Amino acid sequence: MAIKADIGISEKIDPFEAGYNACVQARKNIVDPKVIVIFASARFNLPALFSGAEKAAPDVPIIGCSSAAEITSFGPIRGAAVAMAIGGRGFGVTTGQGGLAQANPRMAGARLGQNLAKAAGTSRGYFLFADILNSDGQDLLSGFREGIGAQGQVVGAAASDDYNFQEVFIYGHNASVAVGLSGLALKGDCQIGMGVRQGWQPIGLPVKITKAMGTVVEEIAGRPAVDFYVDNFGIAKEKLLQSVFAQLAIIYPLGLIMPESGEALTRYPLAILPRGAIRFTAALPEGSDVKLMLGSREDALKAAEEAAVEACACLGRNKPKAAFVFSSIARSKLLSQNGKKEIERIKAVIGEDVPIIGFYSFAEFAQAVSAPAGRGFYNESIVVAVISEQS
Q1: Phi and psi for 229 in degrees, rounded to 5?
Q2: Which residues, in sequence order, are CB contacts of 382 under 8 Å at separation 6+?
Q3: Domain range spanning residue 273?
Q4: Total structural domains in the chain?
């Protein structure tokens, strides 16, 4: 039997019912589901929601996380639970989960990767979902890659909430509490293709990070980091409240200039700290050059299409059977009411009948086996991952 996938969507108010109904719908037409992946609004009581999901599919591994907004074949949706069930003879999965990654994200990522690789044997690719609000996302991904070794591509995203940057929820199969990260290894008669684009362009002259430690940038060009945004936005420092900063920074992140290529890797600022420091989703090394980044709606839509083309190219002549879309919360804000067009562009490439789920995330993962160290972690980007049978 060929790989088959289907999705379920629930907007029930009660979290248990939402999880239950989304899973029932998703597995209804899948004879032998091997895994169910769920993304659900942070408005829910997530432990209760996943309890409902386990009730609907006690015999199937389930993983997932909280989301700022959900993505389906029909376009974006907010305040819902969306699920995808995937099955088929010769297709299999291994799931795993890890502890909170705040103290040592690299070690936490490595431990999960090692456990997954050991349990899965030879894997066709990996999905990774993580909490990066208080840890370095790039370190976590680098550790995960070290753990799985030189096999399989890695795709996934960082869990999000309703744009509050307060608390996210990661679920691992049969976990009674939230975990820091969870993963999925694909096995058997399948292959995964991925594509990633950002659609943000650097503007202005480069400036230097003059003082930083880990994910916290204390000074840019010898001044408190927040002054860089104060100067560019023309807003008095005392008026640049966290809520105002968060909205502006979504559209105007920083771009880390890569010395070897001149490419700008987008890094999203999470919070203003005391004395004008700024905490980012990943490290911005002291001494590195950065630029302000700017996004446009047309560039964002073009990026979605290009990511889908890149993902399908990885499959050769094989047709996608399922698709995951991980799109930055910044893209959701930028596209606003045009969010459905992003999915329409993707469907035009992968096929109108291919089931899609995903969510708007705090960061995106897309790392090929051949990717250089320190790459594969993205902000303000879109990742399209497609699964097909292997020829």
Answers
A1: -75, -35
A2: 196, 197, 198, 199, 300, 303, 304, 307, 325, 326, 327, 328, 331, 342, 364
A3: 200-293
A4: 2
Domain end call among 293, 328, 362 = 293
Single residue among 293, 325, 352 that ends a domain in this structure:
293
CA-to-CA distance for 274 and 47, rounded, in angstroms?
A: 34
If asked whether residues 280 and 302 sit together in one domain, one would say no
Same structural domain, 276 and 314? no
- Residue written as tokens 């999203």? 268
Output the DSSP codes for 77-124. ESS-EEEEEEE-TTEEEEEEEE---SS-HHHHHHHHHHHHHHHHSS-S
In the chain, what is the straight-line distance between the N-terminal and C-terminal CA atoms, in Å? 14
Q: Are residues 304 and 275 part of one domain?
A: no
**183: helix, strand or coil:** strand
Residues 192 and 204 in one domain: no
Q: Tell me the C-alpha distance between 368 and 1, whole Å.
A: 28
Look up residue 153 and give its two tokens.
């591509």
> CB of 47 within 8 A of CB of 55?
no
pTM of the predicted model, to two decimals?
A: 0.89
Residue indicated by tokens 């980091």:
225
Per-residue pLDDT of the chain (391 residues; tens, 9 = 90+): 589 999 999 999 999 999 999 999 999 999 899 999 999 999 999 999 999 999 999 999 999 999 999 999 999 999 999 999 999 988 999 999 987 666 788 999 999 999 999 988 888 899 999 998 878 889 999 999 999 987 788 999 999 998 777 889 999 876 655 678 999 999 988 999 999 998 888 888 899 999 999 889 999 999 999 999 888 887 777 766 666 777 777 778 899 998 777 778 888 888 888 888 998 888 899 999 999 998 888 999 999 999 999 999 999 999 999 999 999 988 888 888 888 999 999 999 999 999 999 999 999 999 886 666 667 899 889 999 999 998 7
Residue 272 makes CB contacts below 8 A (sequence gap 6+) with: 226, 240, 242, 245, 278
Same domain as 59, residue 139: yes
Q: Are residues 32 and 113 in the same domain?
A: yes
Looking at the structure, tell me whether residues 18 and 45 fall in a common domain: yes
Collapsed DSSP state (helix, strand, coil) of residue 265: strand
- Same domain for 207 and 131? no
Neighbours of 180 (CB within 10 A): 25
